Amino acid sequence: MTFAELNLIPELQRAVADEGYSEPTPIQSKAIPAVLERRDIMGCAQTGTGKTAGFTLPMLQLLAPYANTSPSPARHPVRALILTPTRELAAQVADSVRGYGKHLKLRSTVVYGGIDMTPQTKALREGVDILVATPGRLLDHVQQKSVALGQVEILVLDEADRMLDMGFLPDIRRILALLPAQRQSLLFSATFSEDIKKLANQMLRSPMMIEVARRNAPAELVDHQVYETPVAHKRALLAHLIRTRDMKQVLVFLRMKRDCNKLARELVRDGINATAIHSDRTQAEREQALSDFKEGRATVLVATDIAARGIDIEELPFVINYELPYTPEDYIHRIGRTGRAGLPGEAISLVCEDEHRLLVEVE
Questions:
Q1: pTM tops 0.85, yes or no
Q2: Residue 215 pLDDT more than 50?
Q3: Do 9 and 155 contact (CB within 8 A), yes or no?
Q4: Using 50, 70 and 90 to split pLDDT, how confident is the model at 141?
């Protein structure tokens, strides 16, 4: 199947070709026609399946008739709202909206916490058709009256499971109450807990279920390995693996943010370029760390689960669990960073005696 066969308008077909894509992924083949028919969607999709384009492209097509060059904010009310759990994911989704929408006269912007609100407020007051936001910062802008949500026609809740994990449910409920009852809603989640089903029942009308991988399934192209090691030997083993296997790009996971900085410092002392990303770092520091990692200035990026959700690296070969996560779902999200876009990846876990129970749960 081609993007032309999905009935995308020429401007979007051009943008997709500019990005170097010729064939839609399975979720895009299923989601794009359904969204264009204005159906509500409940999508079960892992990262790396192409779900962002699956909702962005048809959303842009539905909004294309409103595209205009008018400088008047009144001609650019928020018609589409995309909610994401983390700043990094918000920035990535906003990049996709800009990239795929570059041949259309639709305005978009992104708002998230950790940075000054003033430029965001200015952009919102000038009028935007598509708004990408994290829940907390969106509510800050609602409170400041810099954004109105009364004309939203399309709502997207991306990575809904992570939103609930992070305690955003009350914020999401407040945001839903501000939106028109008559709207199209799309909910995407890698896992479907009872809480997610409850939320879906509240916000979706006769949704179409789209599932492109086994529920809670790890990426098919990932090779999983476990090294059993005493906790005191983990750092030495990590450094040994990086050196002997000549690893050029490694994402390393820990549970606690304070341990991320410590491990990154110790790896640097071992002569390995490392940087850390977690919620205590400023937005500028997080963006710098991610940029250093993506562009090869840092071999190792040490991260917590919260920071990891928004990390999208096209060809990441290695994910190492320095510590196993407390929930098996988080293992799936972690290793979902590799084995993407049809390329193989390796997930390596360093497991000490105390973590055997966690390993059994993952298995």
A1: no
A2: no
A3: no
A4: very high
Higher-scoring residue by pLDDT: 20, 49: 20
CB-count burial class (<10 Å; 0-12, 13-18, 19+) for 261: middle
49 and 341 Cβ atoms separated by less than 8 Å: no
pLDDT tens readout for residues 293-347: 888 899 999 998 876 665 667 678 899 999 998 888 788 878 877 766 667 789 9
Pair of tokens at residue 133: 């936001």
Amino acid at 204: L
The C-alpha torsion from 301 through 302 and 303 to 304, rounded to 10°, is: 170
- Pull the structure tokens for residue 163: 């939103």
